[in-house]
C-alpha cells in the first residue's frame, strides 16, 4: 500500500522556523495535489495547506496564511512546508496526503506524521 512519508518535525522555540518534507519512494507526486494537515492533542485534524499539480494553485488555512509556505519539487518527488514565525498553537502532528486544493480536504495515501512542538 502506498504511503507518503513526512519528515522535518522537531522542537522549536516560538518565533522559530521549521521545514517539513513529504515524499514517497514509489508514488509519483507530480500527478497529484498534495496537502499538509495537522492534529493537535484533543483536537480534530485540520487542513493547513494544499498545492496543486505544477504549483498552479495553493491554499492556506487562515491561521497559517502569511507564515507558512507550501512548495513542491517534482524532480525530487517532494512537497515542502516552510513554517515561519511558529506559535505554540502550531504544535501538532503534521501529516501529508493527496488533497482537494480549494477545499483543503485530505484524500488518501496518508503518512504517519511528524511531530512539531513549539515551546520555550
Characterization of this structure:
Strand 7 (68-73) and strand 8 (78-83) form a beta hairpin. The model has no long low-confidence stretch (mean pLDDT 95). With 120 residues, the chain is an all-beta fold. Helix content is 0%, strand content 46%. The protein is built from no helices and 11 strands. The strands form 2 sheets. Strands 2, 4, 5, 6, 9, 10 and 11 form a 7-stranded mixed sheet that branches. The protein has a 4-stranded antiparallel sheet with strand order 1-3-8-7, with no helix packed on it.
SSE diagram, text form:
Elements lengths: L4 E3 L2 E3 L5 E6 L10 E6 L6 E6 L6 E3 L7 E6 L4 E6 L8 E9 L4 E2 L7 E5 L2
Parallel strand pairs: 2-11
Antiparallel strand pairs: 1-3, 3-8, 4-5, 4-9, 5-6, 7-8, 9-10, 9-11
State the total count of DSSP E strands.
11
Helix share bin: under 10%
Main sheet record: 7 strands, mixed
| N→C terminal distance | 39 Å
Mean pLDDT across the residues is: 95
Low-confidence stretches: none
Spatial extent as radius of gyration:
13 Å
Task: Please report the number of helical segments.
Answer: 0
Nutshell version of this structure?
The protein is mainly β. Helices cover 0% and strands 46% of the residues.
